[in-house]
Specification:
Rossmann fold; 2 domains; elongated
Length: 283
């Protein structure tokens, strides 16, 4: 972490390989106090970037995993009417049932507002939500406040969180939403960048295995018809599997033998397609 004049600068984290352009957009977004919207295919490190920012700047990380059925209110707060009803019926609770505030639970956005210290707020897979959720959420994040109607109280953020929003680009986001965020597309790492990522996770990885595994990995990603291409996480786990096998030799990869394909391909159809295309190659 680098602090200058009371400000924080993100310069990467121990397990996150960062390129200069991404570092710049993170720091500009924090300076402008704007949400950072990250797009890219699964496995490009969008979610892990928020973890890296929190680690680097020593801030708590709060994660809102967006669901298609989610309402904005769920992300702000919940009024636990059921518990209050049970307390009023049985009378064995230490809570005062006449105090509605005792039954208010903060959602993830609410937690980031009431935190006593600045947090990193990750809003993951925003493209799953409908347009109203997206636009209303940004209204709240712009104003840094929301109302709890049950107790006629306004919650104002104690500290403006660092906001990271991810999208897998499965659904278009509204123009107003896009206009209120800084945007960065994280491309899938090329072989050179991926080698740097592997070096972070496997400092003692032999060059022979690294090159053979990377060549095989990028070849497998190009197979036709694959719905969920293997990503960085799958590559790391695949190398772990290869290294755990005492009989494995990198020459097998160079010869077109790819063991443990189930580590790379998580869908049966993708695995079958890969096996079929490998069979065609071998013939």
């Amino acid at each position: 972490m680098n602090k200058t004049g009371g400000s924080c600068r993100f310069e990467g984290a121990a397990k996150y390989v960062l390129d200069d352009e991404l570092a710049k957009i993170v720091n500009v977004s924090m300076a402008l106090e704007m949400p950072l919207l990250l797009k890219g295919e699964p496995g490009t490190g969008k979610t892990m970037l928020a973890h890296a920012i929190a680690e680097s700047l020593a801030m708590p990380l709060i994660v809102l995993n967006v669901k298609s059925s989610m309402k904005l209110l769920d992300a702000l707060y919940q009024y636990d009417t059921l518990t209050r009803l049970n307390d009023s019926r049985f009378g064995d609770s230490k809570r005062d049932v006449s105090n509605i505030e005792a039954y208010i639970r903060m959602g993830k956005i609410g937690q980031s507002f009431v935190s006593d210290c600045r947090t990193v707020l990750l809003i993951d897979e925003i493209d799953k939500a409908d347009t109203d959720f997206q636009d209303d959420m940004l209204d709240v994040l712009d104003q840094m406040q929301f109302d709890i109607i049950e107790i006629d109280k306004t919650i104002k953020a104690k500290h403006r969180p660092v906001i990271v929003i991810t999208s897998n680009a499965k659904k278009d986001l509204s123009d107003p939403f896009l206009g209120r965020c800084n945007f960065h597309h994280i491309a899938f790492p090329d072989a050179e960048m991926m080698r740097m990522i592997l070096a972070v996770h496997f400092p003692d990885l032999s060059e022979d295995l690294a090159r053979a595994a990377l060549d095989a990995f990028y070849r497998l990603r190009e197979f036709r018809g694959i719905e969920k291409k293997p990503a960085t996480r799958e590559l790391i786990n695949w190398i772990r599997a290869l290294r755990a096998d005492p009989d494995f030799r990198p020459a097998r990869l160079k010869n077109g033998e790819f063991p443990y394909l189930g580590v790379l391909f998580k869908k049966s159809l993708d695995l079958n397609l890969a096996l079929q295309q490998l069979g065609r190659v071998r013939r």
